[in-house]
Amino acid sequence: MAPINANDINDAKNFVPAKQVLPEVETDNGNGKASSKGYSYETLQETANFLLSRISEIPSIGVICGSGMGSLAEIIKEAVRIPYEDIPNFPVSTVEGHHGQLVFGNIGDVAVVAMQGRFHYYEGYPLWKCCLPVRVMKLIGVKTLIATNAAGGLNPTYKIGDVMIVRDHINMMGFAGNNPLHGPNDERFGPRFPPMSKAYNYEFRKIAKEVAQELNMENIIREGVYTCLGGPNFETVAELNMLKMVGVDAVGMSTVHEVITARHCDMNVFALSLITNECVTSYADDAGEANHEEVLDVGRMRQDILRKYVSVLIDRFSKIETNP
Ligand SMILES: O=P(O)(O)O[C@H]1O[C@H](CO)[C@@H](O)[C@H]1O
Ligand SMILES: Nc1nc2[nH]cnc2c(=O)[nH]1
Q1: Which residues does 186 contact at the CB level (< 8 Å), separation at least 6?
Q2: For 222-232, what is each residue's pLDDT tens digit?
Q3: Fewest Cβ atoms nearer than 10 Å: which of 72, 134, 220, 260?
């Protein structure tokens, strides 16, 4: 082993983390369980009131931009951009490919808000905090959530660059008791025991398939089951093979908890996964490895088609009366 010299020690002392503002980590609440109290309804109302004071039109649709998909928010006209740092009680984004601002404005005739940057559990935020923006959206009047994400394709028929309409999810983290709704329930948001069997709106999925045909996207559109793992590491071969066996088509580290939070407060939900990499399910020596750069590259590669697709979907979704 090379001896440590004084320069190495000085380098280590001068090391500056890439992001200066790191999230607070979920703390122990004294009884050995992580605190999951969350913010009160009134606190989130303050956040909502702050945002309402900065905008002139109430958005009806909220969009969460996935990794490398932040450019979706660039189609918003008359945009009002509010950095997360400026929003009371809001977390900050720490992941490359997640800008960290809310963008209010219009797509076509529809008033929208987009999150350019979402919050992930692996950043150190408890799930309720990852989902705080969804409740804030609800409080400012958003009726429909469109969540987008980058995901590994586990279904062997999926190719990189495919777009998967999420039909359903498997809440792996929830199996272990980690749920954004864990802790006291405030009925003003929703019921203690919300159903999830119709989490992804049927009408929206039907429209999304029709629009894909109109835009000649049939060859890249899929519909399947998404799961979220805690991350930040990508999965082992054994883990991926297990997930495949239970019917997972695409794997990511987000969305599931956002959807649960949105359905809890009775928002309509639609979700899309951009397949950014093929999940590695064999031990072959030449099998590749997942990496975040590839994820971001595929997002960039598909940005034009996704912008077009999402803008047409927003137009169509805004025109129908739907029961969640
Ligand atoms: O789910 P989004 O935020 O799109 O990003 C996905 O891509 C990142 C890994 O490359 C992880 O954050 C994973 O969740
Ligand atoms: N967990 C997980 N998240 C991803 N996000 C993009 N690709 C992947 C993947 O392969 N696994």
Answers
A1: 40, 41
A2: 999 999 999 99
A3: 220
The verdict on the CB of residue 118 being under 6 Å from ligand 1 is yes
How does pLDDT run across 260-298, given as a tens digit for each residue?
999 999 999 999 999 999 999 999 988 889 999 999 999
Q: What distance in Å separates the CA atoms of residue 213 and residue 22, rounded to the nearest whole number?
A: 43
Q: Determine the residue type at 65.
A: C
Q: Whose CA is nearest to atom 13 of ligand 1?
A: 253
| Cα dist from 232 to 20, 149, 181, 228, 291, whole Å | 19, 15, 22, 11, 11
Residue 120 is a catalytic residue = yes
Q: Are 275 and 249 in contact (CB under 8 A)?
A: no
| Ligand 1 atom closest to Cα of residue 295 | 10
Ligand 1 midpoint to CA 304 (Å): 19
> Which parts of 253-293 are beta strand (E)?
268-278
